[in-house]
Specification:
- The chain is an alpha/beta fold.
- It has 14 helices and eight strands.
- The protein has a single domain (12-292), classed as TIM Barrel (Alpha-Beta Barrel), CATH 3.20.20.150.
- Strand 4, helix 7 and strand 5 (153-156) form a beta-alpha-beta unit.
- The protein starts with 11 loop residues before the first strand and ends in a 6-residue tail after the last helix.
């Protein structure tokens, strides 16, 4: 029989929020960290077919305190799961904000070194302050250099309320930094809410996208952009976004890396986290079948 031309099923990653359960995004550390034990979440992710999972800084610190880095690393290796850690902000600043960012980044680097985290997620300036491109490139290159020393990559996520809302600036940052382990994180929600057409994603040069995240959204923004993103995301295919078209744009761009599934939803946080994780990967798979028709066996 002829070989299928469709790419194989991607490696799906359960982002932190998809597995976290009933937490308070951006709340105090004890409220933002998951009430579910790290071991239970790892076992759940592996059983459902995920190839990786994520931890946010507050939850990472709690898990390390409870289990130790060596135990966490061994558990991930046993279940053949990659780890991503998040979320660094303040890295463009100086003074007190820079000191806080440095502490978080040091903890994320330790996770890469001791636990084996392969991807560190960072954000732009969340207050949308203008920074010279040269300054942003220099700072991002420095993050990448330090991450490279512990075998990790760094991905930056354009966001519609930040100082990096569109792909021209994002591309200029990555190319200006010139770090092989630094790339873009493209989230369908941020592209849609930022008015970035999928064709602009497809037109990005090969190799610049290092990670992608999927979810869905209502046609209209509910509350502020921040409220919408933290409380009202939907499972893939349950909202108004054209998820198959987004996947097809990434196929044309040449992206073949993992796909995180990021469900941040007030409604879903009230449900058992294992059910949310199950529905998240099932709905994402459905969208890939719609986009590609089938998966290859390779």
């Amino acid at each position: 029989m002829p070989q299928s031309s469709a790419p194989p099923e991607p490696a799906f990653v359960a982002t932190y929020w998809t597995l976290a359960g009933n937490v308070v995004p951006l709340g105090a550390p004890e409220l933002e960290a998951s009430p579910h034990d790290f071991i239970e979440r790892v076992e759940t992710a592996a059983a459902l077919g995920y190839r990786g999972l994520g931890l946010i800084h507050s939850d990472l610190q709690r898990a390390v305190s409870r289990h130790g880095a060596a135990t966490m690393r061994a558990l991930l290796e046993t279940h053949e799961l990659d780890l991503e850690v998040e979320f660094l902000v303040g890295w463009l600043e100086d003074g007190a904000a820079a000191a806080g960012a440095e502490q978080v980044f040091s903890d994320l680097l330790n996770a890469a070194d001791q636990i084996g985290a392969r991807r560190i997620k960072v954000g732009p300036d969340m207050q949308a302050r203008a920074w010279p491109l040269e300054h942003m490139c220099e700072r991002f290159a420095r993050l990448c250099e330090r991450a490279s020393a512990v075998g990790a990559g760094v991905v930056i996520e354009p966001m519609p309320w930040s100082n990096i809302t569109e792909l021209d600036t994002a591309r200029a940052l990555i190319e200006g930094a010139g770090a092989p382990n630094g790339g873009l994180l493209i989230d369908i929600w941020h592209m849609a809410r930022g008015g970035v057409p999928y064709e602009a994603v497809a037109a990005l040069p090969p190799g610049i996208i290092h990670h992608v995240e999927l979810d869905d959204a209502d046609a209209e923004i509910r509350g502020s952009l921040l409220e919408d993103t933290l409380n009202h995301r939907r499972f893939c295919g349950a909202g108004a976004l054209d998820v198959p078209a987004f996947i097809q744009a990434l196929d044309r761009q040449g992206y073949r890396g993992p796909y995180g599934i990021e469900i941040i939803s007030e409604r879903e946080r009230q449900r058992p986290f294992k059910n949310v994780a199950r529905d998240a990967i099932s709905s994402a798979r459905d969208q890939f079948v719609l986009a590609r028709g089938s998966f290859s066996e390779n």
